[in-house]
Amino acid sequence: MAKNHFKIEHEKHFKGKEISGIILGGQDGLVNVLGVVLGVASATNNPFVVMVAGLAATFAETISMAAVAYTSTKADRDYYMAERKLEEQEIEQVPEREVEEIRGIYAKKGFKGKLLDQVVKVITSDKKIWIDTMMTEELNLSQRFDESPFKTAAIVFVATLIGSILPLIPFALLPVGNAIIVALLTSVAVLFVVGTMKAKLTVGNWFISGLELAAIGTTAALTGYFVGLGLGKIFGTNVAGVG
To answer: Domain coordinates of the chain in residue numbers?
Structure first.
């Protein structure tokens, strides 16, 4: 029963972690590339230049996000495994102390008497469950359990790539002026949906969460737009067909 419960909880946890990686990568890619393409579009009014800048930003952002996801996940996993190895050694070398630690953990949860003795006996009779319990209850490290850096990096890579490409699609199909409007409105709508998904994974009002993320994306996009517009006027590049 304890093993099955532990497995189910981990499956739920890592499904949430995967969705979190998708949201993080997609959000980051979309916001960053949107700001870049709107800035370049307002500065040059040239669809070719916009696409080149957007694609360069897309691949730079995608590789960067995947690399960060890989290194951070690997560091977390290595730390978890080091702590787990230490717990294994302590159970082998000083089992009596580790038993008392289990007893203390569950005594604080309200267990007492024969029930407490039974809980301690069940947990310490299986070494794996014993170590798992020490990791989750004593060290609070269940989030780093068996997480693959390659899988996390791949999820973030794909999510960032998709999110980054979304703002570019209007510029491949429409005149620059129309593409700016469509890219902005589409991206804000997508960010709002992503914000609502984040609220479901964590806590909070879904509407407020969606609105916050949409506002962040809008701010980044408009900042890029007006910076590009200003630079275009300063350097006289804001003309159709430049390049």
So the answer is: 2-235
